[in-house]
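Task: encode each sequence below as structure tokens.

Item 1
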Amino acid sequence: MRRSQPFLVLLAAFFLAALLPDAPSPAQSSKVMGEVRFEGDTSTDRDAGVWIDGEYVGYVKELKGNKKVLLLPGKHVVTAREAGYTDSVKEIVVEPGDLQTVDIKMSLAPGAAEPKTTVALKVTIHPKRAAVFLDGNYVGHASELGGAFHSLLVSPGKHHIKAELPGYRTFETEVTLLPGQKSEVKTELIKGSIEAASSDIKKSQ
């Protein structure tokens, strides 16, 4: 008796599936991870940079949608940073397939004050998610330091500017600012290995 072609195709598919190793489906994989969302009441809270287990992941208000944070189950340390504010550090426990929200509340650092004489420094960097450091201190993400309406107020003199983002090469430059002068640092980060990130955004090994 002659077997039909659809039957032979179905039989071949059955044997092929039996030979291949089991692979978890996307739905199964997502159940292994836990999702963490971030909320803040003020614009400062929402603009704070977020580090998880010592590694920079972005700033509060962007960590959703295709930038949502999925973590392996277990304990994790969440640190939020913003210029002029005390670091907010929280330890969380992530459960498989669970969703939890971390409230970010930034507090002014003791004695924090702007210098009496300041210079407006515009920092225009792409991607705008990049973390920006002034003289070794985190001052914000690029999208809040550049553009038509944003600038960084710093004291006159020489300053070291660094911009970093996982998956891109670090950008560093020095600027010398004069009183009353308006300056701009402008660059586009070049893609590179995440392993090249410095300890400012990636924990030391």
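Item 2
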Amino acid sequence: MDTRDAIQEARTRGVDLVEIAPNAQPPVCKLIDYGKFLYEQKKKAHEAKKHQVTVSVKEIKFRPGTDDHDYGYRMERARDWLQEGDKVRAAIAFRGREMTHRELGAKILKRLTADLVEFGDVEVSPKMEGYQMFTIFTPKKVAKPETKKAAPKKEPAATAPEKKKAPKTDAVKEEVVVVEKAEAKAEDEIF
């Protein structure tokens, strides 16, 4: 269709002539309401952004002399963050003479790695950077649950085979008799 005819057709319909594929031979155009088109594009982009997962890096800090209770609290925070899908950066800050005992920091990070093995994987193994030793954990990928398979249909009650009750054994019968006798004796004593 000629360009002038296409423009005239768009005006008579009250819509816009929009070039879709300018590099095609011949170029491809559409007759659409351009304002509505932009609105729908914006709405789709907003929906896509809403379902987008953002991963942030949370940090917990330790010292070489961190006590067990403080360690436990920080480990639980890290576990919660990993379960929420965030990355966790565990850092140990050394000051002054503490730098000579880096093995204490490595011991804490090794313990933390062992405690968080179920919830996250080590992305960056423990390493020194200036006066800090750190490691980074990423959350474990959660396997998608399998879809439920259709349950096998049960047979109607009329055609289902009847279940037979298991006969009581002699030992069970004897216990029942003994209990009944004991209850009767207790009643006699009460009255």
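Check on item 2: The longest strand covers residues 120-129. Residues 170-190 form the longest helix (21 residues).
End of task.
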